[in-house]
Amino acid sequence: MRVLKHPVLGDLLDAAKVRISVDGIQIEAREGESIQAALLASGIRISRYTDKRREPRGLFCAIGQCTDCVMVVDGTPNVRTCVTRVRDGMVIETQAPAGGDHAK
Amino acid sequence: MRSVDVAVIGAGPAGLSAAISARRQGADVLVIEQNPKPGGQLIKQIHKFFGSKEHGAGIRGIRLGESLYQEALCTGVRVWLDASVFGIFDASVLLVARGLLENKSASKYKVHAKSIVLATGASENSVSFAGWTLPGVMGAGAAQTMINVERVLPGKKTLILGSGNVGLIVGYQMLQAGADVVAVCDAQRKIGGYAVHAAKLSRAGVPFRLGFTVSRALGHAGVSAAEITKVDERWKPIPDSTEQFDVDTICIAAGLKPYAKLALMAGCRMVYSGILGGWVPAHDRCMMSSVPGVFVAGDLAGVEEASCAMEEGTLAGLGSARFAGLGEPGEIAELSHRAEKRLRELRMGRFGDHRQHAKNLIVEALSRG
Amino acid sequence: MADSANSVETLGYHTLQELGCASGFPSAVRLEQGACAVIECIQEIPCNPCETACPNNAIKIGNPITNLPVLDADRCTGCGVCIAQCPGLAIFVVDMGYSARAATVAFPHEFLPLPNAGDRVAVVDRTGAVIGDAEVLGVHNPPANDSTAVVRVLLDKRLAQHARGLARGESTLG
Description:
The complex is a heterotrimer of chains A (104), B (369) and C (174). Chain A is mainly beta and 104 residues long. Chain A starts with 16 loop residues before the first strand and ends in an 11-residue tail after the last strand. Chain A is globular and about 45 Å long. Chain A contains one helix and seven strands, in the order E-E-H-E-E-E-E-E. Chain A has one domain: Roll (Ubiquitin-like (UB roll)), CATH 3.10.20. Chain A has one helix at 35-41; strands at 17-22, 25-30, 48-49, 56-57, 70-73, 76-80, 91-93. A five-stranded mixed beta sheet of chain A has the order 2-1-7-5-6, covered by helices on one side. Chain B has 369 residues and is of the alpha/beta class. In chain B, 32% of the residues lie in helices and 28% in strands. Chain B has nine helices and 19 strands. In chain B, 59% of the residues are buried. Chain C contains five helices and nine strands. In chain C, strand 6 and strand 7 form a beta hairpin. The N and C termini of chain C lie far apart (46 Å). The chains are: A mainly beta (104), B alpha/beta (369), C alpha+beta (174). Chains B and C meet through helix 5 and helix 9 of B and helix 1 and helix 4 of C.
């Protein structure tokens, strides 16, 4: 959910819209925001599933260090979505456990 | 290869202050910052700062960050954003990757500097408990970035673990962003942060659970509840003393530790200081580390807060300019003296005393060789 | 003054008893005379914007800046400039002389929605408990306050030493 109004930061200013797809579903994002911000704004909080136990992982450190938020972006795996900015046409996929199967 | 007099790594309050004071002594300064925005932690500190007028008291952190950045640019400091230092050699050569965050191939640069200021800040500690890997469990600083910088709520109902200033401030800011904070818990039996921060939360009806820790995060696809457990004086869980809260987020505010990877790479000697966050690069009063020409400042040199970061940055900037053979020694000495005086003021009172003492030990450790 | 932060460390709020004897707290007599600042800051931290904020030099901290603020209640006119300047949001303006039964309390407010003059609101004490209701007399949020709005409410005089904020309402985001 976006923080549209804020007592200190004021109203959220308009920004150019960017279209990205997440597991095949189109979502709208704001130019310049991180991939993780766009996902959370759409209520998506699972980034990947772990290899051994296929457990869901998501945002943890938000400064690009813990790798819990990594996803496959434009075909490249292990992209840190908390620090990487969205770009129009980006294709994002929940990162599956090694071996290819999605736990869900 | 680019050649500069002073290379500053990190564009937070310490790095920008170092850049400004070095530039004012005539140095050619390059600031290298890995984030796309300058300001370090200041970009998410939306509250008004304490300290005195010289420390920017009463001014919101975000404004301080902006004005420091503008001041740096106005003095002629060059700043590279989205630029990550991945190598540091012979206290003078840096390898930098630019453009990493755009998810394309980054371009690589070699920078030669006569002196280097490391102002790389700190990273959050974590606490593990059953279920801590579930989406929805995150650092308090991470939540703060999402609400204040990205303007997105990471969740609607949160529990905060840790009652130091970060936990208290983030709790308050989660309320300001429109989330509900169900409680602030801490294994300690005393609130760790400032009374005024705690008082703001109390007025907002947020309860404290002191002597409690989070024992479990429940949920399948993400957090749906948090279980807290009472602990004894030795932080051992007391049986049958749990309480559960319906939350979708658990924010861990368990302290920060210096982010010292580059300092280690540069060969800096480290000293352990629990009060200052863990392993800290030893430094002298001019903020020079054990490696000649490598200076440290800000949370990297010991976790304190932005006002101290700015003063240490100023000291490091002056020292790095002098090391590069620039500036006027008399003026550098006078400005350093004033910065040291302001630092002593910031480290007074019962919160500051411990830090002052810990800082003294760091400096002594270096001088003992 | 010795650092008397004890109850806040375990409760999360100061009690009126320990605040009442602090150097920033005006006497009951002074409060009956008219609006006066009430500084609820009794923990030594390096901080002094209130001293420079006051246009009447009614607040003194001096050196070192960890000194607790001392209020000169005779100099204080209750103008309230200090309310928005305190980074800790620990200053209020109370007027117990408003009328025989009513008093006003002005407090800092940094949440949305901001109330409007004329609104009937629930007020809370330092623990966050709702203790009664009040009428909003005014909401002052000039640029100089940098988003710290000051809300002034009219309420029963018996609530004036306790009411320190608005009850946290529904989230603006729904």
